[in-house]
Amino acid sequence: MNNENNNILVDGNESSIHDFDFALICEYFSSVKRQGPGSDEATRKAMATVGDMGENAVVADLGCGCGSQTLQLALGYKARIKALDLFPLFIEKTMEKCREAGVADRVEGIVGDMNELPFEPESLDLIWSEGAIYNIGFERGMREWHKCLRHGGWIAVSEASWLSDQRPEEIEQFWNEAYPEIDTIYNKVEQMRKTGYRDISTFVLPDDCWTKNFYEPQVEAQRLFLERHPGNATAEGLVANQRHEAELFSRYHDYYGYVFYIGRKE
Fold it and tell me: What is the pTM of this model?
């Protein structure tokens, strides 16, 4: 769920999305295919960089949301997939996708917190996380998740990043307030190196991953969501936040985006 941009105005007061009813947030984001910018093509491109995962490999998809990328992992790899998310409804939707595609026998849905991963040290061959590592912070995630990977294991995450060293004040202030750990690609790569990864590669997700795949599908979802919650200030604030985020991206997309960071445990 793309909650880096998480400031919401309710009754004139700015609050964090995390201050509100998780059930309401879950309802909103479960009504769209993707909970953050991305695409099947971007997922497969990152998978190709990692390479083949054999049938004995174990892959963890952290912050899996409703499972768009989980499905691609299960379709493209023979490995066992462990899909983890905080929201039970997201896990249900993930497993439903996998059952429909005939790959559920290799996918385990786990309701859990990425702050306390339920995996043994050096038990994973690949850690995957699209648009979710921000929940614990990029550098912290890289350091703590490193312990769960086998030697030579891979990590692949997408993370909001600056694409330019100079940005207009409005968008810089917005992001620095919403997600202070946003940084340039160069600095993110240096954080990966510092926390024990090598063979690092990156690529920027195309704008369609934001517009066509994330913001545009929300338009109808927002209408239905507000119809279900008339006069609910939290619901109205959540929708206003997403609309504001989309408007900012339309103006400032040259300056920031999601970047896939792929590396290997030393």
Answer: 0.91
- What SS3 state is found at 66? coil
Rounded CA separation 8/261 (Å): 29
* Beta carbons within 8 Å of 260's beta carbon, 6+ residues apart: 42, 45, 46, 156, 157, 158, 202, 203, 204, 205
Give the integer Cα–Cα distance in Å for 196 and 151: 11
In angstroms, rounded to a whole number, what is the distance separating the alpha carbons of residues 123 and 163?
34
Which two three-digit tokens encode residue 96?
A: 């439903």
- Per-residue pLDDT of 195-244, as tens digits, reads 999 999 999 999 999 999 999 999 999 999 999 999 999 999 999 999 99
With residue 126 as reference, give the H or E element that holds it. Answer: strand 124-130
Cα separation, 28 vs 9, whole angstroms: 17
How would you classify residue 89: left for phi > 0, otherwise alpha for psi between -120 and 50, otherwise beta?
alpha
Query: Per-residue pLDDT tens for 87-126?
Result: 999 999 999 999 999 999 999 999 999 999 999 999 999 9
Closest CA to 69 of 107, 43, 91: 43
Token look-up 């996998």 returns 98
In eight-state DSSP terms, residue 81 is: E
